[in-house]
């Protein structure tokens, strides 16, 4: 049984149950989050009013608990709204908030080479036909930042079938997709047999494509194994080793540029380690091939910046950070391009190696995961 108490100034309430600590909510927050049909559209849940339509002096005239509902009457509107208590508690903000710069979000798990024995992998045909399997695989991708699919079709354009599982292709100057195989006079080093340092793609874009798909169609050349590194774990390691180095890479912007194709000049200015205002890790941008002259670091900090940049690269290159796997025809992997760096080992000029790649966006993947999770939760009720 829940109890509700109105604060002396009527600007907030406290909701409690038994011996548990009370959870407080401000009157203005409650009014803004009302779900009555005059405030929210019944069809899509979007607000029908703006904050300007809510009186600035909103207070609570009365509040009472009735079963699993909290009924609140607001003044000066004289409006009464019922709230689901479970929803209120799930969205409570009167709690201890996470502290510290460089922390990962609660929903994700950082990793190193120890994940090699538990690579998130699923069968393409299964996730395509079974929503529960798709939800499970997408949840792993969201948690670890990458995932592999096996037993897909071996045909030109099959990578679009992977994107169709969760979202939409993001077209760039490379087209709807790009070929990854050896070329003569390539416009990008990705099209050679050289090994590539672990990197995030397209750091010169704003915003960067937040999901990348690589799909294997041919793989008879020796070498060319794919490799992924958790950029957030690398950032955590740098912070643990030298907080000043972490700080300098997260406080100052690097610059990135690509001008390898006629008529294309792409530039961006972002930190290599990007944090939200509350200190949560947001993104890592790291690509030695596309880093332009760094000009946004003060003279007195530039040597420290380069020491930090060097060490961050050494951590990323550390074999204990990498998870390596080979893609065979019909196999693919999806990577969160804002977090997980990818690379490949060098491969020989004999045999063939043909991958196709494309970009998508993480909001589509997370939207699909949320929708599937909601559907299963409703079915369980």
From TrEMBL:
Domain TauD/TfdA-like: from-to ranges: 123-359
Domain of life: Bacteria
Database matches in Pfam families: TauD
Record protein name field: TauD/TfdA family dioxygenase
Family named by the database record: Belongs to the gamma-BBH/TMLD family.
Keyword Oxidoreductase recorded: yes
One Gene Ontology molecular-function label: dioxygenase activity
Lineage summary: Bacteria, Pseudomonadati, Pseudomonadota, Alphaproteobacteria, Rhodobacterales
Keywords: Dioxygenase, Iron, Metal-binding, Oxidoreductase
Species, as recorded: Defluviimonas salinarum
Needed cofactors: Fe(2+)
């Amino acid at each position: 049984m829940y109890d509700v108490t109105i604060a002396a100034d009527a600007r907030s309430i406290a909701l409690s149950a038994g011996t548990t600590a009370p959870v407080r909510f401000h009157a203005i927050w409650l009014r803004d989050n009302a779900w009555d049909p005059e405030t929210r559209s019944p069809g899509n849940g979007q607000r029908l009013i703006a904050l300007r339509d809510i009186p600035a002096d909103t207070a609570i005239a009365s509040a009472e608990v009735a079963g699993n509902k909290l009924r609140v009457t607001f003044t000066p509107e004289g409006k009464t709204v019922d709230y689901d208590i479970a929803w209120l508690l799930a969205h409570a903000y009167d709690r201890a908030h996470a502290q510290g710069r460089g922390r990962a979000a609660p929903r994700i798990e950082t990793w190193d080479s120890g994940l090699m024995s538990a690579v998130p992998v699923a069968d393409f045909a299964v996730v395509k036909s079974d929503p529960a399997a798709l939800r499970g695989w997408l949840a792993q991708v969201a948690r670890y930042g990458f995932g592999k699919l096996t037993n897909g079709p071996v045909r030109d354009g099959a990578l679009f079938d992977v994107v169709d599982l969760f979202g939409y292709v993001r077209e760039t100057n490379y087209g709807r997709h790009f070929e990854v195989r050896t070329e003569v006079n390539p416009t990008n080093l990705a099209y050679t047999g050289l090994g590539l340092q672990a990197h995030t793609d397209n750091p010169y874009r704003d915003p960067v494509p937040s999901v990348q798909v690589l799909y294997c169609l041919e793989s008879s050349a020796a070498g060319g194994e794919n490799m992924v590194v958790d950029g957030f774990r690398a950032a955590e390691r740098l912070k643990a080793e030298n907080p000043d180095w972490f700080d300098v890479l997260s406080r100052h912007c690097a610059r990135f540029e690509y001008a390898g194709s006629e008529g294309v000049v792409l530039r961006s200015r972002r930190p290599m380690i990007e944090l939200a205002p509350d200190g949560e890790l947001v993104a890592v941008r790291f690509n030695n091939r596309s880093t332009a002259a760094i000009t946004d670091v003060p003279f007195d900090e530039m040597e420290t910046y380069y020491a930090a940049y060097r060490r961050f690269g050494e951590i990323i290159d550390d074999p204990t950070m990498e998870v390596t796997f080979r893609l065979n025809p019909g196999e693919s992997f999806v990577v969160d391009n804002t977090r997980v760096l990818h690379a490949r080992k060098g491969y020989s000029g004999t045999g063939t190696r043909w991958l196709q790649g494309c970009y998508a966006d993480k909001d589509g993947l997370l939207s699909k995961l949320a929708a599937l999770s909601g559907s299963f939760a409703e079915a369980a009720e």
